[in-house]
Amino acid sequence: MTAPLTHISDTARWVAVYRAMETERPDAIFKDPFARRLAGAQGEAIVQALPQGRTWAWPMIVRTAVFDEMILRTVAADGVGTVLNLAAGLDTRPFRLPLPGDLRWLDADLPDMIAYKRAQLATETPRCRLEFVEIDLRDAERRRALFARAVERGPVLAITEGLLIYLTADQAGALADDLAGAGLRWWLLDIASPRLLKMMLKTWQRPLADAGAPFQFAPEESTRFFEPHGWREREWRSIWEESLRLKRSMRLAWLWNFIGRFYPKRTREQLRRFSGVALLESRR
Question: Which CATH number covers residue 89?
Fold first, then answer.
């Protein structure tokens, strides 16, 4: 059965189903009361049709929880004036997180995605000063103009949740250059390793390629890739370690964790970098 993925924006519905699954648990580690509505029937169909669609919910759920924590902490501790959410998809954090009322939040994505989300959430009230921005981030000129506008009102935290893996290395580098060049202070991102990319391609390469949304970016050097582009890592959160902390691990995770204790130190560090969330800060 072919997954009903027709466009890269459909992946937002896919991930929204995972947020809905977590929300509906009695012991949920986060609540997104809008996720099921936003995912719709198409989102559920995507998860049902994708190979191991439900099996791999746990890393997406962990990623959401870790992003939530790091956004709230960075906004509170570092004087963030603006959050710039790039390829925002169906993220609902401005509506569901306890954000400061005077925080400026820019949700940037393709026009069709913005229109759909605005329509679905038209009767809801955001908790901060939310602005929607219709933009194709491949347009470098418009992208730079957006970044320049973002920094006009205080320090900016950029978010790219679930975006980088769809880019080429050149595209990721150009994005990093533009973010740093505009003067943004922090960048919260998720990043995969080459080993994880290989695993995911075995499972999902065909449906993603058919939708024009192939997984591509997984640099061997992890976040060090961004150092020549003006960024350095401030914090790394391993998805594996966070899954154990949050009790949202894969089946038999305890066994793999036990076996991992006997690996050489270098191998253990490579496993910590298998997949993670990183907070970068500008080097400029």
Answer: 3.40.50.150
